[in-house]
Amino acid sequence: MTGNLWKYLKHHGQPFIGLLLILILGTILSPRATDGSIVFLSLGNLTDVLLQQTEIGIIALAMTFVIIGAGIDLSVGSVLALSAAVSALMLMVWNPHGPAVLQIGLAIGASVLAGALIGGLNGLVITRIRLQPFVMTLATMIGVRGFTKWLTGNVNVDLGFGDVPSGQFAELFSSKSFAITIWIVFAVIAHLILSRTVYGRYLRAIGENERAAAYTGLPVRGVRLATYIGCGALAAFAGLIHAARSHQGNPNDGVGYELDAIAAVVIGGTALAGGRGSIIGTVTGTLVLGLLTNVLRLHMVDSNLELMIKAVIIIVAVWLQRRSSGAHGEL
Amino acid sequence: MNFKSWRRLLLILVGAGWVTGCTSESSPYKYTVVFSQCNNAEPYRAAQNAAMKKLWGEQPDVRLVVMDAQQDSVRQIAEIETAIRMKPQLIIVAPNERAPLTEVMKRATEAHIAVICLERDIVEPDYTSWIRVDNRAIGRMIGQFVVDALTKKYGEPKGNIVEIAGLKGVEAETNRKLGAHDVWDKYPNIKVVTESVANWSQSLAKDRMTEILSAVSQIDVVFGRSDPMAIGAYLAARERGREKEMIFVGIDGLSGKAGGINQVREGLLAATCVYPLCVDKAVEVGTKILHDPAFVPEKQYTISSRLITPETATESP
Predict the structure, then answer these.
(1) Is the ipTM of this complex over 0.85?
(2) How many angstroms away from the CA of B204 is the closest CA of chain A?
(3) Mutate to test the interface with A, among B22, B64, B81 (most CBs of A within 10 A)
(4) Most buried residue, A69, A90, B62, B125, by CB count within 10 Å?
């Protein structure tokens, strides 16, 4: 048992060690609150970090599947903005009549459906026309952003406050307990799908060697299509939390989220070349980024320096990954 | 991964920690004041930051921490959440947007931290005090200047106006526009031919104005809801050789070489309105909050403005 754990950590342990080191550093360097307590370790601060990472965390789960399948999805940030805008429009402008539960349900359903459709479009073009994932999702990233701006008239759609349906929606989806629980539930489901299902095994095989997978009769197109649909739907779900947290549907939000998600996946040890990776690693990578940001902000480090330090962490993570996998030429 | 790799990772993280430790000061300040700025990149905001640092710097027992949200409301929410955990005595916030910042500022007041809204407010009055400028009055001031200029040009109040808007949903954007329209709506021959959103950015304003110049043949006035946006529009018109056809008016009226007052003096802008930084009042009120537990600030303080034209631009501010 101990031997297996050591073997796992030896090959996949760098994100955990990174997380541990940041926790130690954060504790040592943490400022003290006026009552003398360690700010970094306070439950409030740690749950703040979890809440702040929820959106990227959920997107990163989906991105793990895409990258393990040797793909990439650059459209997730735009899909997040689309979902936030659709939910805000549903609740504030289009305003379907009926009880609050129905209105909120319709807003959630429409947003997630919109995300799944964009993901489906990505998957269809990538598998049928065989456009490169980078090119296709770059195109949808631009197109969906434009569509969202057109849909909202490039104006932020603010949610209401109090007992109105939009206020109830914002209160629910931005609450710490709800958002963090949703992330954990999604992470557990994603882990089980990836490690315990036929789909998960197929995805790894396709990511490892697509041609070989096709020759052995695996449903390459179906698996890839499902992966992109899932990615779009999860990005849309993150958009719902984003809308609630920012209390609006802003068509310009979510820019760069795809890169943060990819960074979390890479730090978590998933190979950009596909075939290898884990949900546990991705969650750890997301926490590494969140805690690092928190440590820096608690120390009021210049936000520009924050970006530079994150860049170093990403490079180090990829470099360590290459060394541990024994690949020196490519990823 | 071998021992060497772990050692290198450890060294890099310790290095990051060292940088962190070096760039932040651990010191025996009695008070901590956090200033959450919505976007350092705007000249008006940079002027606010400089004034804030200067004025708080004169108080040796106060540690000022400036956070930059980079025009990202979600980032500003996260920064204020972190600030709340540090339990400062005072948080001064220049909100990026009204609705998104409302809930987190409520949490700050619930944590018994004094909160001052600088220049912009939030949806619910969950703050200790709001240092504001009457943007609607400023809009009316600029609106009347435009009417007078058009009357001088045509002998009657008529003409085509282009509006370059700031970030939608922000109080300043809404009321500056409403104020100008309070005046223009009385004159049916004054027409707003188009409005374009440039989010307070000079470069975006230049891009939007370039498009407008292709689409609109006759423009008399460009009303930028901030000086940088008015200047961006001016630069686009100059590239097309059309800058003499129209006048450019803005709002901010910052001093200094790149400020709006000097741009009026140089003839790039026909007029601007001084939009006070509000920092003096914020520091005055904040200082009283820190030192006098019995002090109860007013819910709002309104700072007055003034119009800058070529005739008044030579006066010292």
Answers:
(1) no
(2) 14
(3) B81
(4) A69
